[in-house]
Specification:
mainly beta; eight-stranded parallel sheet; globular
């Protein structure tokens, strides 16, 4: 059973978890779920830098997302910079932002390395 955060909470900070997580509250900070699934519930408001294997957004998200799969569901609102292998924006969802594939991320890392080598 995944951990769940109640809607009445407001959290500001950095969160790292070793299991699937559902956020149903206001959250501001960063979330790291290596190897796990993050669900942002309907009614939740999250402003964060997030990293997880899969992320499903039913509520409001603003920030940065890094995931293998991002799903934006009907009625959700996402304004983010996204690095993902797969993106699913379902009908009725609102998505604003940029999307980069893993290939773009790898090219960016190579470019940064080359610049660092020159200095």
């Amino acid at each position: 059973m995944p951990a769940q955060m109640d809607r009445n909470l407001s959290i500001n900070g950095d969160l790292t978890a070793g299991e699937d997580l559902t956020i149903d509250c206001n959250f501001d900070g960063s979330i790291q779920l290596a190897g796990h699934h993050l669900t942002i519930a309907a009614g939740a408001r999250v402003h964060a830098a997030v990293s997880a294997v899969t992320i499903t957004v039913h509520g409001h998200f603003e920030g940065q997302i890094e995931a293998e799969l991002l799903t934006v569901t009907p009625g959700s609102d996402v304004n983010a910079t996204v690095i993902t292998k797969k993106l699913a924006v379902q009908e009725g969802a609102l998505f604003t932002g940029s999307v980069n594939t893993e290939r773009a991320r790898a090219a960016s890392e190579v470019a940064k390395h080359r610049v660092a080598q020159r200095t």
